[in-house]
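Handout, page 2. Input:
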Amino acid sequence: MSTLMTDLATGLLEGMVKVVDLTQTLGPNTPIIHLPEEIAVNSPPFSMKEISKYDDNGPAWYWNVITLGEHTGTHFDAPIHWVSGMDYADGGTDTLPVQKLVGPACVIDCSTEVAADNDFVLTADHVKAWEKQHGDIAKGSWVLMRSDWLKLKGCENFLNADDTGPHSPGPTACCIAYLIEKDVLGWGVETVGTDAGQAAMFEVPFPAHSMMHGANKYGLASLTNLDQLPPTGSIVIAAPLKIENGSGSPLRVLALKTD
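Output:
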């Protein structure tokens, strides 16, 4: 075993490397995106039906059948999720290069701005200001937008929608274009989807979806606990289920960090 792997194993065993869970609990109350009926059929809510639980149906085992959409709870958006990424041969959850499912994280703290404005949008200038303080975003990084959204809104108001639509933070098209220029691995958020709630009305609609996936890059949505990560220096492990031709999947996102 190489020294690098030995050091990591020792760090994990002795607690010098901490594992942070960035995943929301998946259950019947997990918020999901609701699309207008005239646009599409909506994803069903998460449900779970017991098969057996140490009973006549299975005396020594407990298991369930679960029903949910691919983009439910903390989930991975693969390139083929969006029409702009539909032609990538490696754009489904079963064909993604596994080397890209682990990468360094850059965490941009927008929690103060989001607390003051639910519709806050992150621009390229915001990202450049962050880089002046924390260093350039490296190629192959996950860029994660910390908003503390779950703590701010709770599950009961996670979608934060009114008669004008959902109101939640996200990136502008110029922000996403800049991150694509930096050749990042992908973009992640603590809100229900990778775009702002009002992104349908942006000059480039849904830029985190249309532009990121169009560049064969990934998305992570409904993350949590980003306040536990440093701006730089952590590693994110985000491996979706290997669904044949899958557009995404729920997943357990973990981060490794040192104190």
